[in-house]
Amino acid sequence: MARSVVVFGEDWGGHPSSTQHLFRRLGEDRDVVWVNSLGLRRPTLTRRDIVRAVTKIQKAVVGGPQTKKVIAKPSRLTTIDPRAISWPGNRLAAAVTRLAVGAQVRTALAQRRLHKPVLWASLPSAVSVLDACGGGPVIYYCGDDFSALAGVDHTPVRLLESQLVARADVVIAASDELASRFPRGKTLTLPHGVDFELFSEAAPRASDLPVGRPIAGFYGSVAEWLDIDMIAQAARALPGWDFVIIGNIETDVGPLLGLPNVRLLGPRPHAELPRYVQHWTVSLLPFRDTAQIRACNPLKLREYLAAGTPVVSTDFPALTPYKHLVAVGDPASFGSVIRQAADDPSFHQARKLAVATESWSARAKIVADLMESL
Prior knowledge:
The chain has 2 domains: 5-193 and 359-373, Glycogen Phosphorylase B (Rossmann fold, 3-Layer(aba) Sandwich); 196-355, Glycogen Phosphorylase B (Rossmann fold). It is 34% helix and 14% strand. It contains 13 helices and 13 strands. The protein has helices at 18-26, 47-62, 91-111, 154-167, 176-179, 196-200, 228-237, 274-277, 291-295, 299-307, 334-343, 348-355, 360-373; strands spanning 5-8, 32-35, 77-80, 118-121, 138-142, 170-173, 187-189, 215-219, 242-246, 262-266, 282-285, 311-313, 326-328. GO terms for molecular function: transferase activity.
């Protein structure tokens, strides 16, 4: 029988993270207790934080409105809305969270008659709860550079991460850059996978894509790690192109407003993204050069490649294995590189083949074998 797991991750279904992609597969043949986000920053008195806090309290205490699910939940995966105080570095908050969430997890384990599960932490904030869960070996899954990630209280979270690394039996890092920061003897690199069938199999064109002109497209969080000025400069340099951007806007996009060939479409469900990426002319990875990007392993890179569409990107380390299939530009050349990539229809099949064996199912098999070996 496959080992059971307690996962401390993001809110299930709110965003198709790498952890959710893995446990969508791993949860098919094992029991998984998934604890929704314990938080990585102290809430502020902004409307967004107040609404989020009230919603989480409702869900944890009285069963409030549920997040719209964008990724299927396996039949053997149970979610817990934690009765937690999000305040990294605060001892009282950690103590209250340890007692409350520990009790929730132990109750869920007892109800399902699970003993000594693997404890999987995708967030450093989980370290304060681990010893209260009655579990077995600990895996720290590091998918991001939390010391540079936007929206995180960096100083206390760095300390929590160091405590978690010391507590963990195994550290799994999503990139070589992240792996280099942890003890070599217990760290392995596991690059992100891809839902290959979803992105490689032909999908109908989305009805809200512009027609009649070439399209440069991007999907994902429109956040501070995107080079908005570079996108605007490329859009002005290519007035005969449409620039389509899909995702929540979390940063200043002023330079894009008023440009007639830029379309900000807002977010779309993950399952709908092939209807866009397969039908625009060039896929974009217009990242700024930041510590977070240098350590990242973006999920969309492999999704773009699985779709077969030409990819234009700025340079960052995780791009290295695919550089022969990606056109790389900088702020000065990005527009011309987009134009050149569109003129070269080759490598469509090669892009797909490059990630055909890198499915999330293949990644999950590696994780499953690791957990059974602990």
